[in-house]
TrEMBL record:
Family statement drawn from the similarity comment of this UniProt entry: Belongs to the xylose isomerase family.
Encoding gene (name): xylA
Cofactor note: Binds 2 magnesium ions per subunit.
Residues that coordinate or bind Mg(2+) 1: E240, E276, D304, D347
The protein's name in its UniProt record: Xylose isomerase
Subunit record text: Homotetramer.
Signal peptide range: none
MF-aspect GO terms: magnesium ion binding; xylose isomerase activity
EC top class, as a word: isomerase
GO BP: any one term: D-xylose metabolic process
Alphabetical list of SUPFAM superfamilies matching this protein: Xylose isomerase-like (SSF51658)
Cofactors: Mg(2+)
Enzymatic reactions: alpha-D-xylose = alpha-D-xylulofuranose
EC number from the UniProt entry: 5.3.1.5
Length: 446
C-alpha cells in the first residue's frame, strides 16, 4: 500500500479523498465493497496477493478517441505551455490518483511518462528528466513501479515492426528506446520489464521473410536481456502475447506460441509471460486457458487485467467485472503460489462515453473488487471445497500400478497393448462438467 496521498501544486481530482473499504452493504460508488488491502486470505493480505497496478497510458494519456471520432475527455494536466510542463503535471495527477485509490504500483511506456522526440538526444533527455520527477513522487508516496516498457508501435517509423523490421536502421532506432526504457526501469526500481510486440508480425505474407524476422526478434531480445543484466536489472523480462491487431498476424500469438519461442531461442530462463485477458480471448482462448498454459510451463510472470466484448472483434480493453473470469484466473495464480514479482496491472480504459473524473476511480474500484472476490472464492475452492479432490481422483489411475509406470516413462506400447488386452473395453467415466460448474456457482453465491 502507498503510505500517503500525494497532492502536488494543484489538486486534479478535488472532492475525492482516499478510497475507503466499506464492505458489501455500502452503496457508496467511491468505496471498496470487497477489496480490503489488509484482509488476510490464507497466508497473505489481499494487497500481497493481488499487487495491483495502474496503467499510466490508459488512465492519464488516453482521451477516448476511436476510429470514428476524437477524444471526449480534456485533461487539466494537458494545459501546460511546454511538453515537459505537461508531463510533469501529468505525473502529479497520476500520483494523486494512484495514492487516493490506494494502489501500490503503476506501469508505463517510455513516451507515456516523457515527451517523445525524433531527435535521440532530446528523447533521452526528456526521459531522464521525467525519471527524476517520478523518482521523487515514488519516494514521497511509497508507490512503486511494477514494470516499465518502451512504445515500439505508435511512431510511423515502426509501421513495419520494430525488432522485426526489414530495415536495420529501424531496428537500431528501436534499440535506443529499449535501452533508455530499461535504464529508466532500473533507476525507478521497477520489478519487471515488458515487451509487447505491437507490430512484431506481418500484414502481408507475400512480402515477409517470417523466419528471418523471428530470428531477429530473438536476437534483439537477447541483446536487451544482456544490457538489462549488465546494468543491474534482476527482475523478470516479460513478453505479452497477442494474436493480431494491429498486424494481421503477430509472432507472440498466444501463451503456447511464446513458450515455444522462448525455449527455441534459449530465453526461458530470463523471460516469462505477461498475460492480458483480452488478448487471450482474441486468440480464441479463455483468459484462464492462456494463464494455465503459461503457468504449466513455469512461465506465468504477470497479468494485464481487463476484458473484451464478445460482440466486438477487437481489443476493447474494458475493466474486468466478470467474476467467472476472476475466479478462473485466481485459481491458476493460487495454485502456482502467487505472482510476485509480477502483479495485476489494469491495462483497461474507461469507455469513450465515460467523461467524468470519478469514472476512472469507479472503474478501478470495480476491477479491484472483482479480483478480490475472485481471490476469496478461489481460495475457498482450493482449501475448503471438494474441487481439488475431484480433480485428483479423476486422474487416480496414473498414481499407482501400470499407470504410474507409464507416467514415469517406464512403459512401452507393447506393455500397454498387453494391459488393454487383459482389461477389455474400458468403462465410461463421466467428466461431470456440470458438477464442477455448479460448485463454482455455489461458492460464488456464498
Amino acid at each position: 500500500m502507498s503510505t500517503s496521498v500525494y497532492i502536488g501544486a494543484k489538486e486534479y481530482f478535488p472532492g475525492i479523498g482516499r478510497i475507503p473499504f466499506e464492505g458489501r452493504d455500502s452503496d457508496n460508488p467511491l468505496a471498496y465493497k470487497v477489496y480490503d488491502a489488509d484482509k488476510r486470505v490464507g497466508g497473505k493480505t489481499m494487497a500481497e496477493h493481488l499487487r495491483f497496478a495502474v496503467a499510466y497510458w490508459h488512465s492519464f494519456c488516453a482521451t477516448g478517441h476511436d476510429p470514428f471520432g476524437p477524444g471526449t475527455r480534456v485533461y487539466p494536466w494537458d494545459a501546460g505551455n511546454t511538453p515537459l510542463a505537461r508531463a510533469e503535471a501529468k505525473a502529479d495527477a497520476a500520483f494523486e490518483f494512484i495514492t487516493k485509490l490506494g494502489v501500490p504500483y503503476y506501469c508505463f511506456h517510455d513516451i507515456d511518462l516523457a515527451p517523445d522526440a525524433d531527435d535521440i538526444a532530446e528523447y533521452e533527455a526528456n526521459l531522464q528528466h521525467m525519471v527524476g520527477i517520478a523518482g521523487e513522487r515514488q519516494k514521497a508516496t511509497g508507490v512503486k513501479l511494477l514494470w516499465g516498457t518502451a512504445n515500439l508501435f505508435s511512431h510511423p517509423r515502426y509501421m513495419n515492426g520494430a525488432s522485426t523490421n526489414p530495415d536495420f536502421a529501424v531496428v537500431a532506432r528501436a534499440a535506443v528506446q529499449v535501452k533508455a526504457a530499461l535504464e529508466a526501469t532500473v533507476a525507478l526500481g521497477g520489478e519487471n520489464y515488458v515487451f509487447w510486440g505491437g507490430r512484431e508480425g506481418y500484414a502481408c505474407l507475400y512480402n515477409t521473410d517470417m523466419k528471418r524476422e523471428k530470428d531477429n526478434m530473438a536476437r534483439f531480445l537477447t541483446l536487451a536481456r544482456d544490457h538489462g543484466r549488465s546494468i543491474g536489472f534482476k527482475g523478470n523480462f516479460l513478453i505479452e502475447p497477442k494474436p493480431m491487431e494491429p498486424m494481421n498476424h503477430q509472432y507472440d500469438f498466444d501463451s503456447a506460441t511464446v513458450v515455444g519461442f522462448l525455449r527455441e531461442h534459449g530465453l526461458d530462463k530470463d523471460f516469462k509471460l505477461n498475460i492480458e485477458a483480452n488478448h487471450a480471448t482474441l486468440s480464441g482462448h479463455t483468459f484462464a486457458h492462456d494463464l494455465q498454459v503459461a503457468s504449466d510451463a513455469g512461465l506465468l510472470g504477470s497479468i494485464d487485467a481487463n476484458r473484451g466484448n464478445p460482440q466486438n472483434g477487437w481489443d476493447t480493453d474494458q475493466f474486468p467485472t466478470d467474476l467467472y473470469d476472476t475466479v478462473g484466473a485466481m485459481l491458476v495464480v493460487l495454485r502456482q503460489g502467487g505472482l510476485a514479482p509480477g502483479g495485476f496491472n489494469f491495462d483497461a480504459k474507461v469507455r469513450r462515453e465515460s467523461s467524468a473524473p470519478e469514472d476512472l476511480f469507479e472503474a478501478h474500484i470495480g476491477g479491484m473488487d472483482a479480483f478480490a472476490r475472485g481471490l476469496e472464492v478461489a481460495h475457498a475452492l482450493i482449501e475448503s471445497s471438494p474441487l481439488e479432490g475431484w480433480r485428483q481422483d479423476r486422474y487416480a489411475s496414473f498414481s499407482s500400478g501400470a499407470g504410474a509406470e507409464f507416467a514415469a516413462g517406464r512403459s512401452s506400447l507393447e506393455a500397454l497393448r498387453s494391459l488393454a488386452l487383459a482389461q477389455g473395453e474400458p468403462q465410461q467415466r463421466s467428466g461431470r462438467q456440470e458438477r464442477y460448474e455448479n460448485l463454482i456457482n455455489q461458492y460464488l453465491l456464498r
